[in-house]
Amino acid sequence: MNWLSDIQFTASATLHGGALVANYLWDGTQDKRTNYYACPDDETFRFMASIYIHSHYNMSFSKEFLGGITSGASWYPIYGGMQDWNYIHAGCFELTLEVSDNKWPAANETGVHRRIFSSDNGRPLPASITIKGINYMVKVGRDYDRLLHPGDKYKVVATMPGYKSKTTCIRLDEGLTTVDFVLDPEVTVKGNVHECNCGSNNRLDLVKFLSGGHWEVYFTVIVALGFLLLLVQRTKLNLSKHSRSVVPKRPAVV
């Protein structure tokens, strides 16, 4: 829209797929119904559309649209479309050209295609397809089609959250190229894992304890042992002094 404001175009065209017809405005009607609703330049738009369809062999022989042209409102009304906006706000005469009614082109025209499945239940996955070296991702519905230039080698990667990605190498020739992917779910461990040493030996537990770096325990034990040794030494010294000061009694003579 900003581009149209900066540069005044006289005419333009939008290319669509899904039908064979040259579509011109209006795209909608005042009463919201599907019927022909002519714009002020209706004759000019019909003339422009006719010029194009006579250069498109298949479109000119359309069995669905008389003469290969139609107004948007008589086909299916939409509101807020680009071709109406161009005419109203930019003075640009735009056609919408539906250039193909082939909704499922052959695989050799699209590069590589097929489906992506889950290995645990066999159901199709809404995964994604990427090509190594090309920073672009294709979202997958029930199947995928990836346009690629023929004659080259490609690494095709299928990815899906919660599944392990898979990569395969293909050489894209002119013939049919199909690649099915089967993705494996990622395995996750739920809950906590506990180790049980119910049958461990007490001495092994003591060794593990002593080798665990409990320095505060070592210090406390050493201080306690030192205090006990000091107490024993003082007790022995006191007993020795007491034994020397006591005079033994002489035995009684009867």
Automatic annotation (TrEMBL):
Sorted UniProt keywords: Carboxypeptidase, Glycoprotein, Hydrolase, Membrane, Protease, Transmembrane, Transmembrane helix
Active site location: 98 (proton donor/acceptor)
Residue ranges of every copy of the Peptidase M14 domain listed in the record: 1-121
InterPro entries, alphabetized: CarboxyPept-like_regulatory, Peptidase_M14, Peptidase_M14_domain
GO molecular function per UniProt: metallocarboxypeptidase activity; zinc ion binding
One of the record's GO cellular component terms: extracellular space
TM stretches of this protein: 215-232
Top-rank lineage group of the source organism: Eukaryota
Any GO BP annotation: peptide metabolic process
Family according to the record: Belongs to the peptidase M14 family.
PANTHER family: CARBOXYPEPTIDASE D, B (PTHR11532:SF57), PROTEASE M14 CARBOXYPEPTIDASE (PTHR11532)
Protein's name according to its UniProt entry: Carboxypeptidase SOL1
Source species: Quillaja saponaria (Soap bark tree)
